From TrEMBL:
This is Mor family transcriptional regulator. The lineage of its organism: Bacteria, Pseudomonadati, Pseudomonadota, Gammaproteobacteria, Lysobacterales. It comes from the Bacteria. Residues 43-148 form the Mor transcription activator domain. It comes from Vulcaniibacterium tengchongense. Gene3D superfamilies: Homeodomain-like.
């Protein structure tokens, strides 16, 4: 039964992809990466379908239309594949993920004079907010400038 459900889902996604006029299959694959032929399809195809389906569900819960949800999900997966494609990377789950996303949001919102507000909003001390900002700034600078010396 479960296998049949997966086949139906795959067929539905395939049908949806066939209805998409925005990009041809070769253009979409070009966004994912030039070396896609080097990796057997059975190693990434189902994961790709699952990523689109998960993001699509999020957009549907937000009240987006079915077509808009699919297009946003597809484009999001394409953008992630373009950035992370052909690389091994780790994505935490649960509390570690939520904490990392919270810290990134605190850094994005941080301005002079709103540290107390951020601390209250996230139920942290001001010292914790300053520590998060310092750590996030180092991450952002490392991405822009690279590391000069190994620790």
């Amino acid at each position: 039964m479960r296998c049949g459900t997966r086949e139906v889902r795959n067929r539905n996604v395939t049908e949806q992809l066939e209805m998409m006029p925005a990009q041809t299959e070769s253009e979409s694959l070009g966004l994912i990466g030039r070396d896609i032929g080097d990796v057997p399809e059975d190693r990434w195809a189902q994961a790709l379908v699952d990523m689109v389906r998960v993001q699509e569900a999020v957009y549907l819960r937000q009240g987006r239309g079915e077509y808009e949800a699919f297009v946003l999900a597809r484009d999001g997966v394409l953008a992630l594949a373009e950035y992370f494609g052909a690389r091994m990377w780790y994505l935490p789950r649960g509390d570690r993920l939520r904490t990392a996303l919270r810290d990134a949001e605190i850094y994005r919102q941080a301005k002079r004079g709103n540290i107390r507000q951020l601390a209250d909003e996230h139920r942290l001390s001001e010292q914790q907010v300053y520590r998060i900002i310092r750590q996030q700034r180092a991450l952002h600078l490392n991405k822009i400038q690279g590391r000069l010396f190994d620790d």
